Structure formats: C-alpha cells, structure tokens
Amino acid sequence: MVTLPIIYVVSDSVGETAEFVARAAASQFDGGNFELRRVSHVDSAAVIDEVVQSAYEEQAIIAFTLVLPGLRERLLQRANELGVHAVDIMGPMMDAFEQVIGQPPRRKPGLVHQLDEDYFRRVEAVEFAVKYDDGRDPRGLERADIVLIGVSRTSKTPLSMYLAHRRMRVANVPLVPEVNPPEELFQIRDKGKVVGLTIRADKLNAIRRERLRSLGLTPTANYASHERIEMELAYAEQIMRRLGCFVIDVSDKAVEETAGIILEYIHKREKHSRT
C-alpha cells in the first residue's frame, strides 16, 4: 500500500477548492488515505512562513489557493527555498483568464462563497436538520428557526429536510407519553417558532399499519392500535396547549403543502415583528 504524504491546504478563503483537488488526486493512488491539514483565511506572511517550514520538516505537499499576489509570491518563494512541493491550484487559471480577456482579476478572497452564499446556507440548514432530528440534541432548539413537535409518523423528519432546503434551520422533537419532552423545549424564548403537527386518529392508524407491514411486522401491534394512538394524540395536544404553539393538521396534506403553511406562518410573524 502506498504511503501518501501529508498535504497542507492553504487558502486566503475557506480552502475547499484546494482540498477537493487534493482529495481527487490522492484517490488515483493505491491506498488513497492521507492526512490533510487545512489552513484557512491566511492573511499574513508569518502564517505562510510557518506553514512552509512545517511542510519542509514533515516532507509534506502544499496545495494552495491564494488570490492575493503578495501571499502567493511569498509562499512560492519560501517553498522554492526549502525545496517543498507547492501546487498553485488557482493561479494558472487566473493567469489564463487575464491573458485572454485582457483584464486583471479582482484579487479578492472568498468571492465564490459570496456568490454561493445561498448554497452554503442550504447546506448548513440540512446539516442542522440532521443533527437535531428526532430530539437527539435539545441544545439545538434555541438556535433553530423552526421547532416541529408531534407524535410519530406526522412527517416531522421529511418536513425538516424540506424546510432545510429552503434555508430554514429546523429541529424536531417527538412527543411520546412515556418520555417527558426536554426542558429546553419549554425554555425556548421565542415560543412562536414552535409548530405542532397533529393528525386524525384514523389516518395515523392507516399510516402506522402500513409502516409495520413494510418492516415485516404484524399491523396489530400496539404501535398502531386505536387506543395507543388516541392516548398519544391526547398527550401531544396537552403539550401543544401548554406551549401555546401554532398547530397544523397534516392528515390530508403533502409535505410540500404543510411546509408552505409553515413558511407563510413564519413570514407573517416576521412581517408583524417589523411593524
């Protein structure tokens, strides 16, 4: 198995471009595993000198995306002096653009991320929804834009993901009679961002029976019994009344329709808060 060198990814922005290229190159060699050390938001020659020195001592490779000429030249100079392999990921392409169009680049770090701010906000929201799904970590409730609560099979997770793609940070908490909701739910300062999801008992019974069948279990299990469902819904209603939250009946609604109602509700709240 090939032992690949350490790779330092150096950037005056985030460094994702250089990291992507480094990983793609490493994947072409047997083994493919390597240690990557990202050095982001570089803004001084001192940091450049330190990184090049470390790369020299560890016989590492440097992959860099530096758009500021001073930093770029400093890194290439120091790497050449110490015999460190340094790969300029963006420089040659920027030089080619400059020669062809006859216009110098703006030399401003992070422009691609400014252009893709919407994309990264969406990625952040999806990661948030995954991390705080199903009440896994109640510490995220205060940071969420929306907190969904409801019994099992009221589409909390699909809704969380759908809203995440609309750049909303969503956490959700299941309501189960045997398990007290986290105290953080009742300590949320903005109770208006809590949305309760309810459903008709007959509809929930059909959904749960189908879910049991898909798992190869008997549809007569307690999970899908009318008595159990009525108890869970009554408990959930009690919690929602205690919170005084906005409640949506999702019985005959697609995820997109429910999400639309939530987004409209949030929009009205924000508009009202500004007036």
List the keywords.
275 residues, 4-stranded parallel sheet, 13% strand, single chain, 11 helices, alpha/beta
Summarize the structure.
The protein has 275 residues and is α/β, with parallel strands linked by helices.
Structural description of this entry:
This protein is of the alpha/beta class. Helix content is 49%, strand content 13%. It has 11 helices and 8 strands. It has a 4-stranded parallel sheet with strand order 2-1-3-4, with helices on both faces. A 4-stranded parallel sheet has the order 6-5-7-8, with helices on both faces. Strand 5 (146-150), helix 7 (156-164) and strand 6 (170-174) form a beta-alpha-beta unit. Helix 2 runs parallel beside helix 3, helix 6 (117-131) packs antiparallel against helix 7 (156-164) and helix 9 crosses helix 10. The longest helix has 20 residues, at 255-274. It is elongated, with a radius of gyration of 26 Å. The protein starts with 6 loop residues before the first strand and ends with a helix.
